Amino acid sequence: MRIEKSVTSITWIPSEAISGMPKLPFEMGVAHYDDPPPDKLDDLEALRESDAFREANELRAWVEFEDGKPSLYGYSGGGHIGVTRIKLGRRELTFPAVQYPLLQAEPEVADGWVKFKQSAGGHMGLPAPRRVSGKPFFRIKSASAWTTLALTIKADGTAEHALEGASPFPRHWLYDHGGKLVEKSGTIDFGEWYKTSHGKHTPWGEEDSPALTTAVESDLERELSASIMREGKKLERRNLEQGQALMTEGEEGGELFLLLDGVVDVEVNGDRVAEIGPGALLGERALQAHGNGLGNDADSGGRRAAGRDRRVGAPGARRLASPGRVS
């Protein structure tokens, strides 16, 4: 019996994810941020042609089983790289990105399953002179971005996938065999990526970077968060340190928060009951419940959020589990 499965990651740059001097071209409209990828992945090549992502890692593999044991197996799929578009007045210039060689590990074979592992990535086609950590201390070419995916195909026809490694920037979204969005990278760190993602600090050197993923928010939350960011209204940004509470039980609630980056733990009586990632809306349930928080403590891992005064609420007790932003 032959079984074929896949997992695909899409890498894209969220709005306002870049800081410092490199942010200027984006603020001036010379370069652009990316719109969030679709919830359902139907045509990867069409997305690439429309400049909808920076790169994609498409891990496809197949296994032939005989009496539940692998007999033949192999990779298919590959890496996909986008382009860099720069606007100069009325002209738009296109610079092809640089794609790295595809890395496919020797499959791990056991009784009843085979595990595949694939790294794909590259860097922008334009130079990005900057200081970096470690030798050579200065780089001309831009920082590297990549994902390392794992896919385990089982004899019963099921499969498991994982984002085993990824560059700290930009954002990475994962899609299953049916093209459904199933996971997101929980944190991004432009500063760390800009300084360290070069040379030996990549899968093509000596090391990969671990990736923290979170579950996908609801369809309604995605629709609302996209609407909030498209409105054009300047929202207050809050940067929270790891362990800092965003909301606490008993506090009067009058705001809606959109988590832009990072992971939030929801705690009840000191016990962690949920983990929330980027794109989630916080605050609505608390406000619906007479304007008071319902949970105990919301722990923050240092991330960003954008806030707006709105009579919709969330279950209190939310703490950032990694440094981040809220709006």
Structure explained in plain terms:
The chain is mostly beta strands and 327 residues long. It has two domains: 2-215, no CATH class; 219-326, Jelly Rolls (Sandwich). It is 10% helix and 46% strand. The chain contains five helices and 26 strands. The protein has a six-stranded antiparallel β-sheet with strand order 3-2-1-14-15-16. A hairpin with a 6-residue loop joins strand 10 and strand 11 (138-141). Mean pLDDT is 78; it is low at 286-322.
How would you sum up this structure in a few lines?
The chain has 5 helices and 26 strands. By secondary structure, the chain is mainly β.
Helices and strands in order:
Elements: E1 2-12, H1 24-27, H2 44-49, E2 55-66, E3 69-81, E4 83-88, E5 91-96, E6 98-99, E7 103-104, E8 108-110, E9 113-123, E10 127-131, E11 138-141, E12 144-154, E13 159-166, E14 171-175, E15 181-185, H3 190-196, E16 213-215, H4 219-230, E17 236-240, E18 245-247, E19 255-261, E20 264-268, E21 271-276, E22 281-282, H5 284-288, E23 297-300, E24 303-309, E25 318-320, E26 324-326
Parallel strand pairs: 24-26
Antiparallel strand pairs: 1-2, 1-14, 2-3, 4-5, 6-9, 7-9, 8-9, 9-12, 10-11, 12-13, 14-15, 15-16, 17-24, 17-26, 18-25, 19-22, 19-24, 19-26, 20-21, 20-23, 23-25
How confident is the prediction overall: mean pLDDT?
Answer: 78
Structural class: mainly beta
Q: Numbering strands along the chain, what is their spatial order in the largest sheet?
A: 3-2-1-14-15-16
Q: What is the count of β-strands?
A: 26
What composes the largest sheet?
6 strands, antiparallel
| Number of domain modules | 2
What is the terminal separation in angstroms? 50 Å
Helix content, binned percent = 10-25%
Overall geometry comes to: globular
Uncertain runs are: 286-322
β-strand percent reads over 45%
Number of helices: 5
Radius of gyration: 21 Å
